[in-house]
Amino acid sequence: MLIPVILSGGAGTRLWPVSREGHPKPFMTLPDGQSLLGKTYRRAAGLLDGWGDIVTVTNREYYFQSKDHYHDAQMARHRGHFLLEPTGRNTAPAIAAAALSLQALHGDEAIMVVMPADHLIVNVEALQSAVEHAVTLARAGYLVTFGVKPTAPETGFGYIQTGAPLDDRGAAKVQRFVEKPDLQTATHYLESGHFLWNSGMFCFSVATLLAELQVHAPELLEQTRACMADSAPVETGGCLQQELSPTLFAEITDISIDYALMERSDKVVVVPAGFDWSDIGSWSALAALIAPDAQNNRASGDAVFVDSHNNFVQSEGRLVAAVGVENLIIVDTADAVLVAHADRAQDVRRVAKQLKADKHEAYRLHRTVSRPWGTYTVLEEGPRFKIKRIVVKPGGKLSLQMHHHRNEHWVVVEGMAKVTNNGTGTHLVAKNESTFIAAGHKHRLENPGVIDLVIIEVQSGEYLGEDDIVRFEDQYGRTV
Question: Where is the MannoseP isomerase/GMP-like beta-helix domain (predicted)?
């Protein structure tokens, strides 16, 4: 049995201001309108012959957001199986947890195909061919990694040096893994013909993986086993969901699967992948997906270039005009603008690092924030007021809650709202109608209809922070 395992984590700080802690890189929308996570899910589904399980290992904070992206990718065709981490501990614990879960559900002979959620693969047919090749080797007891033939001396990728040939289809033993090299070394790798880019994708049987972890990373395996034993998968909303213990998961060694196992085992082989691959690791990589104009300018969104060359502009709404500039990356969002020299694309992460150190809100959240029930967008804010556009999905229900410091005025602009207010029962508020929620009142907003509920919320008060909330009931299991 073949089971795709999607690893959906990582901050994607080199893609700030679009990638943020609350909306990381896998949820980014590409120029074709699809997210990286949605594309990965479609690729995973394409590996299955009919109906099957697709495992996703992600942070518990991203569970509902992931389901939304999978729904857009026709998730109903396959059963979602989510392992929810309380915090990131790198790829080795994530893959070990997935293997232990699959062992319990499907046995030792299940074959895992591990796929990062935030990479782009264009030639899906070539991917399927490479996976078929890898599955054959995995059934023979090998740990298989996928290598991509380098097309340039890229310094942002890890490399795999190939060893002795394994078969007539290009598979080879792995001689060594190499960290991101400098330009001179990367050029040598490219010219030698014996190095491949490390794609971060793997294929192995549950039995082989767990046996090799027992040899090379026994402590990590036992830590993960104890964590998995502390919880059980629960069927909910058509998905299998297992939340991992925050206490036990924090005790697991934070290490990548490359360091923990792949660089130590003698069972590691590489399959050369014939597909076009990118880790979308910077704005330069994203720009490469867009056709240039005659002056080699590229744009996603509304942009005008005058006497400008070799620029990339991404705009989420506003018109961006560039005059007399060259070699710039310009990214415009609702609350932040990035301007960087193209040669410094890798250094964008330093901006995110600084914002995190300063505890700036632009590191964590966008103006539009996803919630299990829908989204809210901050339209305007100032002293003692904040205006939001709130969208509640059909059947969505906010927690029964109370605020100490703010009053709220709700105006329904689309759909029908079901409102609970201060223990007076529930009542319906139709389009073009409004209601008032006073500070200190228990209240709840629900969408009983079949279309999105859209309201404009005007908050007023001395303190309008998102942490001014007391939850009494919540159908999504958030802290009460």
Answer: 301-355
Measured between alpha carbons, how far is 349 from 282 in angstroms, rounded to an integer? Answer: 9
Give the rounded distance of the alpha carbon of 337 from its chain centre: 22
Helix (H) or strand (E) holding 330: strand 328-332
3-state secondary structure string, 379-409?
Answer: EEEECCEEEEEEEECCCCECCEEECCCEEEE
Q: How many CB atoms lie within 10 A of CB 324?
A: 9
Tokens of 33: 């309108």
In this prediction, residue 77 carries a pLDDT of 67
What is the pLDDT averaged over residues 143-170?
93
Among 384, 386, 396, which Cα is nearest to 444's? Answer: 396
Q: Structure tokens of 110?
A: 């299940």
Please state the domain extents for the chain.
2-278, 283-352, 368-473
What is the per-residue pLDDT across 377-419, written as a single tens digit (0 to 9) for each? Answer: 999 999 999 999 999 999 999 999 999 999 999 999 999 999 9
Give how far Cα 319 sits from Cα of 99, 287, 288, 324, 333, Å: 48, 18, 21, 17, 11
Considering the chain, what percentage of its residues have pLDDT values greater than 90?
88
Distance between CA atoms of residues 316 and 291, nearest Å? 18
- Give the span between the Cα atoms of 49 and 160, in whole angstroms: 31
| Residue 320: CB atoms within 10 Å | 19
Residue pair 138/205 in contact by the 8 Å Cβ criterion:
yes
Q: From the centroid of its chain, how far is CA 375?
A: 17
Beta-bridge partner residues of 278? 120
Run of H or E residues at 161: strand 159-165
Distance CA 196, CA 149 (A): 5
- With contact defined as beta carbons under 8 Å apart, do 155 and 161 qualify? no
Strand partners, 442: none
Question: Does the domain formed by 368-473 have CATH 3.90.230.10?
Answer: no
Mean pLDDT of the chain: 94
CATH topology identical between 2-278 and 368-473:
no
Full-model pTM: 0.91
DSSP element (H, E) containing 273 = strand 268-273
In three-state secondary structure terms, 169 is coil
- 125-129, 238-242, 462-466: least confident range: 238-242
Architecture of domain 2-278: Alpha-Beta Complex (3.90)
